[in-house]
Specification:
Blueprint: E1 3-7, E2 10-13, E3 18-25, E4 31-39, E5 46-51, E6 57-59, E7 67-72, E8 77-82, E9 91-99, E10 108-109, E11 113-118
Parallel strand pairs: 2-11
Antiparallel strand pairs: 1-3, 3-8, 4-5, 4-9, 5-6, 7-8, 9-10, 9-11
């Protein structure tokens, strides 16, 4: 079983920056796509950004130009650099990862880290 542990959330003023990290722990693992989702109170969970094992990236429109996703495969870690933060970015941010094996259908999830942006 793969365990994802996030860190880096916190309280920041609008216009500020935060860097989230998510490290995967397991005795043996192969992870394909890794990504970040967020869920604000009363809203559905939404995909923020994801990165493939080869480095291809996807961003939701609302964060393009402000957020950057990256990964270090040697450290089994994915990062989310968030700049020019807005109050509407306030949410619990959750790390997500897919197993390389097509037989593992369930994605792995972290416990979430709170990001609060004050106006």
């Amino acid at each position: 079983q793969v365990r994802l542990v996030e860190s880096g959330g916190g309280l920041v003023q609008a216009g500020g920056s935060l860097r989230l990290s998510c490290t995967a722990f397991a005795s043996a693992m192969c992870l394909s796509t890794m990504g970040w989702y967020r869920q604000a109170p009363g809203k559905e969970r939404e995909l923020v950004a994801r990165i493939g094992s080869s480095g291809s990236t996807y961003y939701t429109d609302s964060v393009k130009g402000r957020f950057t996703i990256s990964r270090d495969n040697a450290l089994n870690t994915v990062y989310l650099q968030m700049n020019s933060l807005k109050p509407e970015d306030t949410a619990v941010y959750l790390c997500n990862a897919d197993d390389c094996s097509p037989y593992v259908r369930e994605a792995y999830w972290g416990q979430g880290t709170q990001v609060t942006v004050s106006s």
